[in-house]
Amino acid sequence: xxxxxxxxxxxxxxxxxxxxxxxxxxxxxxxxxxxxxxxxxxxxxxxxxxxxxxxxxxxxxxxxxxxxxxxxxxxxxxxxxxxxxxxxxxxxxxxxxxxxxxxxxxxxxxxxxxxxxxxxxxxxxxxxxxxxxxxxxxxxxxxxxxxxxxxxxxxxxxxxxxxxxxxxxxxxxxxxxxxxxxxxxxxxxxxxxxxxxx
Length: 198
Known about the structure:
Elements: H1 2-21, H2 34-46, H3 50-64, H4 68-84, H5 88-104, H6 112-121, H7 126-147, H8 154-197
Helix pairs in contact: 2-3, 2-4, 3-4, 4-5, 4-6, 5-6
């Protein structure tokens, strides 16, 4: 009897998991507004259908991303979703993007998402935050040495730079020479005509 109950439980759990995976919509109706899409995303999130929730939130970004309120709300929901799944890197990047938006546009945005981002960032383990901050700052540090040419590269770069620098000068000379050349033949023509008249 116990064996049948265990088998039935395993089958039921498998069916529930299978049915849960089938709920990701292939197409999202065009007539849904941003609020409806967010709500559907939140409903799927609550039911642990994270892929479906992510699709709804991304659809808000695609369709209504021009509106800062909808953009911030969908981005926050995505960050919250990533955090719930322990996708700390994606969550961190999402919340940092929201914070950057608030730094660049300090007025006119709903303040709640800035506060919520701070709360959510505090839930990411400290060692992960340090890792992400190091990664975020690394391109700036690595970019400087990469821009300095090695001795082997300098002649190539100098050769490439020289024609570019000479081109505008030559073109400027051509521009200034054309009127002078055009003026010279006109001056000669009247004197030729005058000479033929005499």
